From TrEMBL:
Keywords: DNA integration, DNA recombination, DNA-binding. The active site is at S12. One of its GO terms (molecular function) is DNA binding. This is Site-specific DNA recombinase. GO terms for biological process: DNA integration. Residues 4-148 form the Resolvase/invertase-type recombinase catalytic domain. Pfam families: Resolvase. The keyword Protein biosynthesis does not apply. InterPro entries: Recombinase_CS, Resolv_N, Resolvase-like_N_sf, SSR_resolvase.
Length: 203
């Protein structure tokens, strides 16, 4: 079987338009029938078209992608997929948005080495940026909490029916679960209200 050129296109949701990636594939010369496309998040590699593509790839083939993040959004996973494709499969990769990331035959050892180094650098920078964003979000949430801002669902107000049931529970006439069922709330909600009332028996 002759060497083949394949393209892989991914958009993160069904609402996103894949046309920009498809145009780039056609301009490179990838045949329409050789383009595999997924419309879902890159958070994992449970993607049907990508799995079919990996089974099809063989030594000497070339895989074309628009940008490196089409392989995924996680530093370790991108590197792992790159290793599988280039080392295990023996398939070349061409990243259209980054000409240095081109491992096709004919490139010398230095060119291949540069591609590997650039890939690791780009993946590291992307991962670091995501961690920085998460850190800033966490710091923002912590600062908002320090100012008294509340997060999550608002706490249920204590209904009037709670108080007689609370007294009966305190007198061991009913269990906390029975009281909670009567109020149509969870067991934990009833106990949380009871604690606020200074409940003496929390079990």
């Amino acid at each position: 079987m002759s060497e083949q050129v394949y393209g892989y296109v991914r958009v993160s949701s069904k609402d996103q338009n894949e046309e920009r990636q498809l145009i780039a594939m056609r301009e490179f010369g990838v045949r329409p029938e050789a383009i595999y496309m997924d419309k879902q998040s890159g958070k994992d590699f449970d993607r049907p078209a990508y799995r079919r593509l990996l089974r099809r790839l063989k030594a000497g083939d070339t895989l074309v992608i628009k940008s490196i993040d089409r392989l995924g959004r996680n530093y370790e996973e991108i590197l792992e997929q790159w290793r599988i494709i280039t080392k295990t499969k023996g398939t070349a990769i061409v990243v259209l948005d980054m000409p240095l990331l081109d491992t096709r035959e004919g490139r010398d050892l230095t060119g291949t080495l540069i591609a590997d180094i650039v890939l690791q650098l780009l993946s590291y920078v992307a991962q670091t940026e995501r961690e920085f964003i998460r850190q800033r979000q966490a710091e923002g949430i912590a600062a908002a909490k320090a100012r008294g801002q509340r997060f999550g669902r608002p706490e249920l107000p204590v209904p009037d029916e709670f108080y007689p049931l609370f007294e009966r529970w305190q007198d061991s006439e009913i269990s906390a679960r029975e009281a909670a069922r009567t109020l149509n709330v969870t067991h934990n909600t009833f106990l949380r209200w009871a604690v606020k009332m200074g409940g003496r028996k929390i079990f």
